[in-house]
Write a structure and sequence with these properties.
single chain, alpha/beta, Aspartate Aminotransferase, domain 2, PyrdxlP-dep_Trfase_small
Length: 399
């Protein structure tokens, strides 16, 4: 069998396609993906074209070009471009959904304890404003999809109006059994909002067939689009409900029929160069073969997992299986006497950076610190060896 990680050939040499800062070992593509050079170049070209004649760009040219870029994204995601809107990131998309979904006093929104912290804040505020309740299901451990499905269904009541679900969780890096979950909620006629920034490119799925009412994502993660690029998908039956939290002109470009997207797509004068570079990002990731990208990233993530589990004497929450894990893994740190850290100043996260210029986040979940490792095409075994050596040096001081 081919060793997917032996690919040190030119096509997989990170220096060819990414300009990651000299001396830095970047293991955090899951939070902030570095933009590859061809995508940076595409963005710059659009930016220069716009700067050369902004009147032409905004009034005549770019509306059409953005539509073409969106059509390429829709084809990649396997959905209709009519149901898709470019938006800055998953956070903005989720805020639009929360501003659009009508909640009444006594309604319940079903949440779970693996959801992203900022998403929790968005729905806490929406529920408080409406007198609704955010119900949190605790999900663990994971051996079988029923370990996720059953506790969620158990938390459903006649007042449940909406479910918020990650496609791939952030702190625990777990792929949720999204198709099975969607089938259950469809049967109960409860709409679902999927928070999916990690799933784009990492997971093989058809957005149009998933049955989500709303899907929110950022594209700067695994798809390698520029920072500040995401999308909001809205199923046709929900489109008339969409409300823009921020108003601008709200009208279609001259000659184009009105759609649900009009209130959101023009939000004052914004440079759309990052959206226009999305087709290049798609071509870039596809040029390596999506299947190869997924399997290689998974293989490296499994090696990272084995190394970390042995070193920490703990276990990652989900089974080491492609149904549960993608190109990212999170392993709990063992209990420690060290005082609990503040956000972004975890002693291990800081120690990895200061000792060896390794970028890897320590996430806090279920009162436990988790070291999360992301494996994109520019990562290899050498990165894991450096991580292991550095972790050994930091033992007793940072974990
Ligand atoms: C699961 C999940 N949801 C939402 C977000 C927010 O993404 P962004 O910061 O690109 O808006 C993240 C970011 O890491 C995430 O992991």
């Amino acid at each position: 069998m081919t060793d997917l990680l032996q690919l040190n050939d030119a096509t997989h040499n990170k220096r060819n396609f990414w300009r990651i800062a000299e001396g830095v070992t970047y293991l955090n593509h899951g939070s902030f993906g570095p933009t590859p050079l061809p995508v940076q170049e595409a963005r710059q070209q659009w930016s220069q074209r716009l700067a050369a004649n902004p009147m032409n760009g905004f009034v005549r040219e770019l509306d059409h070009e953005v539509e073409l870029a969106k059509a390429a994204l829709a084809s990649f995601l396997k959905c209709s471009p009519n149901d898709l809107l470019f938006i800055e990131n998953a956070t903005t998309a989720m805020n639009v959904v929360a501003a659009s979904f009508e909640l009444r006093p006594g309604d319940e929104v079903l949440f779970n304890d693996h959801e992203y912290g900022a998403v929790r804040r968005i729905w806490e505020r929406a529920c408080t404003a409406a007198g609704a309740k955010l119900v949190t299901a605790n999900l663990r451990p994971f051996h079988d999809p029923s370990d996720i499905i059953e506790p969620l269904l158990y938390a459903v009541t006649p007042r449940t109006r909406l479910v918020i679900l990650s496609h791939v969780t952030s702190a625990t890096a777990t792929v949720f059994p999204i198709r099975e979950l969607m089938a259950e909620f469809k049967q109960r006629e409860i709409p679902v909002v999927i928070d999916g920034p990690h799933a784009i490119a990492m997971q093989d799925f058809s957005l149009g067939e998933l049955g989500a009412a709303f899907y929110c994502a950022s594209l700067h993660k695994w798809l390698c689009a520029p920072l500040g690029t995401g999308f909001l998908y809205v199923a046709p039956e929900w489109q008339s409900k969409v409300r823009a939290p921020m108003l601008s002109w709200g009208r279609p470009a001259a000659g184009r029929a009105a759609t649900w997207q009009d209130e959101l797509r023009w939000q004052g004068t914004r440079d759309p160069d990052h959206y226009l570079a999305v087709p290049t990002a798609i071509q870039f990731v596809e040029s390596f073969g999506l299947d190869h990208f997924r399997k290689r990233g998974f293989a490296l993530a499994c090696e990272a997992r084995t190394m970390l589990e042995e070193l920490f004497g703990t276990k990652a929450i989900a089974p080491a299986d492609m149904a549960w894990c993608g190109t990212m893994v999170a392993v709990p740190l063992p209990p420690s006497e060290l005082p609990l850290p503040k956000a972004d100043s975890d002693p291990l996260q800081v120690g990895l950076w200061e000792t060896a210029r390794i970028e890897a986040p320590v996430m806090f979940w279920n009162n436990t610190r988790h070291l999360r490792i992301s494996c994109h095409l520019y990562n290899d075994r050498q990165d894991l060896r450096l991580l292991e050596e550095t972790l050994k040096k930091l033992h007793g001081r940072c974990w």
